[in-house]
């Protein structure tokens, strides 16, 4: 069996860093029981989580009972499914019956879920043992993961730096070997940037193919625009496994439609047609990031595949960014309290017509009238069709994910004052959302894979994008690239 983890040394806790597929294989072959594996992760959590603060809520009694049941079922010859007995965690924003769902908001600290999210139901129906939840920023709205309810999560590769956000606790728990698998969510890179910063795998699915019910603020049933749920893992094959388990219509549409994502026919890197968008003047990336995009492109070239460094979809990139920002903030406005919304509405009404500052546009976007949103959505549909034409010529597109590797914690409440040094030049913190929004606004799937550490020992990931419903193309390409690179590498201070 091929693996995506480093060779064990005398101090390496190899078991903690196996991918979910390998862990389930060990359970089903009775090399280890589900109960034993759960206790292994619990012991690591007790040892390491106090300094990382990735797992912030647990249900250990319930998990221990379920792990015992999984072992008893296996002894009877019963197979619960592809995740039989696997201990795992999920992002705090998922409902788990009996646990709080706060989205990092102190006002929701007493919001106790009465039922599991649909995604969590499907994971458990496939055999998973969910033993805890992982940290997020307030309202899931930052590239960092800190809040007044649960505190700050650190990056296992360097605790002084961010693990990303908003699925930062998810990525940190995986990177530190505290859990077997994770589920996150993404509206502005919230699966993808934590995967990049922590050196794990993450997949943002095509919008709508994984059911969102139960991943929402209290009382909300309508799926949010742009936002998706999706897996984080220590291998690409685990991403595909979760897509097959969780993907498909919610109950309201069953059995009317079934999800049938097309399998990638390419058997090796030489079979792929690849476009490369390695940098952009709107959101330039550090040379260390640029080099990794080019490294993966060269792997395809060396294998005999087709690589085009100049191909671009037929739209104006600045317009694409503007449409994304407006639609993003319009979608995020639903997470505001009524008081916040009314204050923004008052501010928006007072704006001068010629004020097109970043703050003015965000305020307008957060208070859009439906007609304005409709026009933006129509423009977005044109972007989607432009991408559709583009992907008639290419199987995947390679891009950066973020400006740099993980940056130091920065909790300055004035977001406009947060800066990141890119090639020794300061750039506004939120400009890097460009690389998430470039594809996210058009509902495209994308996979982030680790490519190894930079000169600071911090991971760098790249983004692999495919056409709508082309999720498995991106994941399969990621899997084949991982066979040429190191894949996931455990952080040095958390291997034992």
Figure out the total of helices.
Answer: 14
Shape: globular
Order of helices and strands: HHEHEHEEEHEHEEHEHEHHHHEEEHEEH
Mind telling me the C-alpha Rg?
A: 21 Å
Draw up the topology in text:
Layout: H1 20-28, H2 34-52, E1 55-58, H3 60-75, E2 87-91, H4 118-125, E3 129-134, E4 146-147, E5 151-152, H5 168-175, E6 182-186, H6 192-198, E7 201-204, E8 228-233, H7 236-246, E9 273-276, H8 287-303, E10 306-308, H9 317-332, H10 338-349, H11 358-365, H12 370-390, E11 396-399, E12 419-422, E13 425-428, H13 433-440, E14 446-453, E15 459-465, H14 471-482
Parallel strand pairs: 2-3, 9-10, 9-11
Antiparallel strand pairs: 1-3, 4-5, 6-8, 7-8, 7-14, 11-15, 12-13, 14-15
Helix pairs in contact: 2-3, 5-6, 7-14, 9-11, 9-12, 9-13
Q: Would you kindly provide a written description of the structure presented here, covering whatever features stand out?
A:
This protein is an alpha+beta fold. Helices cover 35% and strands 14% of the residues. The chain has 14 helices and 15 strands. The protein has helices at 20-28, 34-52, 60-75, 118-125, 168-175, 192-198, 236-246, 287-303, 317-332, 338-349, 358-365, 370-390, 433-440, 471-482, and strands spanning 55-58, 87-91, 129-134, 146-147, 151-152, 182-186, 201-204, 228-233, 273-276, 306-308, 396-399, 419-422, 425-428, 446-453, 459-465. The protein has an 8-stranded mixed sheet with strand order 6-8-7-14-15-11-9-10, sandwiched between helices. β2, α4 (118-125) and β3 (129-134) form a beta-alpha-beta unit. The longest helix is centred in the C-terminal third of the chain and has 21 residues, at 370-390. The radius of gyration is 21 Å and the shape is globular. The chain starts with 19 loop residues before the first helix and ends in a 14-residue tail after the last helix. 53% of the residues are buried. Mean pLDDT is 95; it is low at 1-10.
């Amino acid at each position: 069996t091929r693996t995506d983890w480093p060779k064990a040394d005398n101090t390496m806790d190899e078991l903690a860093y196996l991918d979910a597929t390998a862990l389930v294989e060990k359970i089903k072959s009775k090399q280890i029981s589900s109960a034993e594996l759960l206790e292994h992760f619990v012991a690591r959590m007790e040892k390491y989580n106090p300094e990382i603060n990735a797992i912030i809520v647990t249900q250990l009694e319930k998990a221990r009972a379920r792990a015992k049941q999984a072992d008893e079922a296996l002894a009877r010859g019963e197979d619960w499914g592809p995740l039989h007995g696997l201990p795992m965690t999920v992002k705090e924003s998922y409902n788990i019956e009996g646990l709080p769902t706060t989205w990092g908001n102190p006002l929701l600290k007493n919001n106790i879920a009465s039922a599991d999210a649909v995604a969590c139901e499907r994971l458990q129906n496939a055999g998973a043992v969910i033993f805890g939840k992982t940290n997020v920023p307030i309202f899931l709205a930052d590239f960092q993961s800190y809040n007044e309810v649960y505190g700050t999560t650190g990056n296992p590769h360097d605790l002084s730096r961010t693990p990303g956000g908003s699925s930062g606790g998810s990525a940190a728990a995986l990177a530190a070997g505290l859990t077997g698998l994770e589920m996150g969510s993404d509206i502005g890179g919230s699966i993808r940037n934590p995967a990049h910063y922590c050196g794990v795998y993450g997949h943002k699915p095509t919008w709508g193919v994984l059911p969102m019910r139960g991943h929402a603020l209290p009382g909300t049933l309508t799926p949010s625009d742009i936002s998706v749920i999706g897996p984080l893992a220590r291998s690409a094959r685990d991403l595909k496994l979760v897509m097959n388990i969780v993907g498909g219509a919610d109950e309201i549409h069953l059995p009317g439609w079934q999800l049938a994502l097309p399998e990638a026919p390419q058997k090796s890197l030489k079979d792929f047609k690849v476009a490369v968008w390695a940098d952009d003047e709107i959101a330039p990336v550090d040379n260390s990031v640029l080099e990794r995009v080019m490294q993966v492109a060269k792997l395809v070239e060396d294998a005999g595949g087709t690589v085009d460094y100049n191909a671009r979809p037929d739209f104006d990139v600045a317009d694409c960014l503007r449409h994304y920002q407006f639609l993003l903030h319009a979608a995020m406005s639903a997470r505001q309290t009524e008081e916040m919304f009314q204050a923004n509405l008052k501010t928006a009404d007072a704006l001068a017509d010629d004020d097109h500052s970043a703050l003015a546009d965000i305020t307008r976007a957060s208070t859009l009238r439906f007609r304005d949103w409709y026009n933006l959505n129509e423009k977005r549909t044109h972007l989607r069709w432009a991408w559709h034409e583009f992907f008639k010529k290419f199987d995947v597109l390679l891009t950066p994910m973020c400006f740099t590797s993980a940056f130091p914690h920065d909790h300055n409440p004035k977001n406009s004052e947060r800066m990141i040094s890119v090639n020794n030049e300061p750039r506004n913190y939120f400009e890097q959302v460009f690389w998430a929004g470039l594809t996210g606004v058009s509902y495209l799937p994308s996979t982030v894979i680790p490519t190894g550490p930079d000169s600071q020992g911090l991971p760098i990931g790249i983004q692999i994008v495919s056409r709508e419903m082309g999720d498995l193309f991106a994941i399969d390409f990621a899997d084949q690239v991982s066979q040429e690179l190191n894949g996931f590498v455990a952080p040095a201070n958390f291997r034992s």
